[in-house]
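Lecture notes, unit on protein representations.

Consider one protein chain, 318 amino acids long.
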Amino acid sequence: MSGVLRKAADVSRYLVLPALFAVFIAIMLTHGPALNAWLPHWDALMMIGTVTLVERVYTYKNRVSQRGVFVRDVTSTFVNVFLTGAALAFVVLPLLDSAMRRTIGRKYFFEADTLGPVWLQVVTIVLVISFFRYWIHRLQHHNEFLWSLHSYHHSVTDLRAMNDFTSNPVDFALRNVLIYLLLSPIGFDSTAFFIAFPMLAIWGVFSHCGAEVKGGWLNYVFAMPEVHRWHHTSVVPEGYSYSVNYGVELSFWDLLFGTYYAPGKDGQIMAPRIGHPGGLPDEPNYLKVLLVPFGLYGIVSRLGRVLPGRAKDQMPAE
């Protein structure tokens, strides 16, 4: 009987993420608006919580403790889930709307019914967004300044649902928010966006699942954890300039453009050591993640030292 249970457990490692994907999509499509009115961004919170539970059930063999960066991860998740997208939309959407009305005299390039059936619009949105995110992600590894922002995301020593949103807000916005805003003037049916968005958002969190789960043939389509861990390897594979597996949610872009890498042994994808490719340690101080790339952390820290009350607080006891 133990052999049967062991086999069932092994099979479940392949099924757990696809099953959760189907459940999440069903919940979002049937109850999404109502739940969002009750708790904004409930979907991100639900995915993080559920995937964290999966990490407990299917313990990863090379698990590295993340307790020392828990506060940073919670802070960054809050900022990027609740503030980053809203702040960028506040700036970008009025500019896009003004530009559209000045150039073509209306808000959208096309009427939604001229862009084909909803299912085709969903496919188009998914492909366009994933394509953009693949290339902006590559640029974040190739451009020196963008890498200074993005490198903090690569300092993590283990992939977890809790550190999927651990990024400088500008880095996060470029990769995860900007393309949605740029597509808004096209005129896609709102239903198509409503369906496409959760499909894309879910796999972003799933790719950071720190559980001992398997992808099988899905590794060639989606950015499954086994594949995405190689994007976070501390040693860039030989023959690749900066990194591998740039696909944020879909891995077939990596197959198409020659950046897919998932070495196997005994029929299983090997597990890399995760960490910054330059050897930099993980940064637990969120203010440094936020300010250092812009050269502002030193100014803020010096300002903190001269604030009223600080000198008194730091005086030695009598």
